[in-house]
């Protein structure tokens, strides 16, 4: 059985390309992320096909943000697709509304802390309060947990801080910004290797480009899975 701690991001142009990649990966990968970029390219149809016809787990990465009533309605609509994870921004009112919308389903609501493509200069440009990013991420995670989030999205560099929170017990930490050693960082700024992310307390890692740009995507995924299974990936926190 595939190790579902690895979530492969299907950040490809459309559902046809996404299904082709999933077929190349075969039974090596059991969990896929479908993001906003594929929404107009058949993303929901792909999510349903992978879930219902191929038995895959699905993480819908929408990063919803709006007034509470709108978020609740959107999440209630998405919950009918029998998805596993859905992201919303980590503001407490958004998390609470999302949990209401997901109340009659098994879909987990994951709160985004601070995007892994951002650094302190980006936060300054957006008028985000001063402070070190790890401290801000930990604070946002704590507030999301207080609002009943099932888990959080954070860079692997902050996973250990979040896992140390008492409220993190039994909650999920999902880390994008994971790159195998030697891989191109792309637009990610706060990164770590698969083994270190797991060792620092992540439940799932999200990897996209290093898999779907590889000459042999399945071999690339298998290499990541082997690293996750190595002794270096054992978490001292759990």
Describe the protein in words.
It is a single chain. The chain has 238 residues and is an alpha/beta fold. The model has no long low-confidence stretch (mean pLDDT 91). Strand 2, helix 2 and strand 3 form a beta-alpha-beta unit. An eight-stranded parallel β-barrel has the order 1-2-3-4-5-6-7-8, surrounded by four helices. The protein contains ten helices and eight strands. The chain has helices at residues 15-25, 43-52, 68-79, 92-101, 120-125, 133-146, 159-163, 194-199, 209-212, 217-228; strands spanning 6-9, 31-35, 57-64, 85-89, 108-112, 151-153, 172-175, 204-207.
Question: How are the elements arranged and paired?
Answer:
Blueprint: E1 6-9, H1 15-25, E2 31-35, H2 43-52, E3 57-64, H3 68-79, E4 85-89, H4 92-101, E5 108-112, H5 120-125, H6 133-146, E6 151-153, H7 159-163, E7 172-175, H8 194-199, E8 204-207, H9 209-212, H10 217-228
Parallel strand pairs: 1-2, 1-8, 2-3, 3-4, 4-5, 5-6, 6-7, 7-8
Keywords:
238 residues, alpha/beta
Summarize the structure in short:
It contains ten helices and eight strands.
What is the end-to-end distance? 23 Å
- SSE string: EHEHEHEHEHHEHEHEHH
- How many DSSP-defined strands? 8
Q: Categorize the overall geometry.
A: globular
Biggest sheet layout: 8 strands, parallel, barrel
Contiguous runs where pLDDT drops below 50 for at least 5 residues: none
Mean pLDDT comes to 91
Structural class: alpha/beta
Rg over CA atoms, rounded to whole Å, is 17 Å
Q: Can you count the helices?
A: 10
Q: Indicate the proportion of strand residues.
A: 15-25%
Q: Helicity range of the residues? A: 25-40%
Q: Major sheet: order of its strands?
A: 1-2-3-4-5-6-7-8
């Amino acid at each position: 059985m595939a190790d579902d701690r690895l979530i492969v991001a299907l950040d490809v142009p459309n559902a046809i390309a996404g299904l082709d990649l999933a077929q190349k990966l075969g039974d090596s990968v059991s969990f896929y992320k479908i993001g906003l970029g594929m929404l107009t390219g058949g993303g929901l149809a792909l999510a349903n096909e992978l879930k219902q016809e191929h038995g895959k787990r699905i993480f819908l990465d929408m990063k919803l943000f709006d007034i509470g009533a709108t978020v609740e309605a959107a999440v209630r609509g998405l919950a009918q697709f029998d998805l596993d994870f859905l992201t919303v921004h980590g503001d407490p009112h958004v998390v609470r509304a999302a949990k209401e919308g997901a109340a009659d389903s098994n879909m987990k609501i994951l709160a985004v802390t601070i995007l892994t493509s951002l650094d302190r200069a980006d936060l300054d440009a957006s008028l985000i309060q001063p402070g070190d990013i790890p401290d801000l991420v930990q604070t946002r995670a704590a507030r999301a947990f207080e609002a009943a989030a099932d888990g959080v999205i954070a860079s692997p560099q902050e996973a250990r801080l979040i896992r140390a929170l008492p409220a993190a017990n039994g909650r999920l930490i999902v880390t994008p910004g994971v790159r195998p050693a030697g891989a191109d960082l792309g637009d990610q700024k706060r990164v770590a290797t698969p083994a270190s992310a797991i060792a620092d307390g992540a439940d799932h890692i999200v990897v996209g480009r290093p898999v779907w740009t590889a000459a042999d995507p399945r071999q690339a995924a298998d290499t990541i899975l082997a690293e996750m299974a190595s002794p270096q990936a054992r978490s001292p926190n759990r």
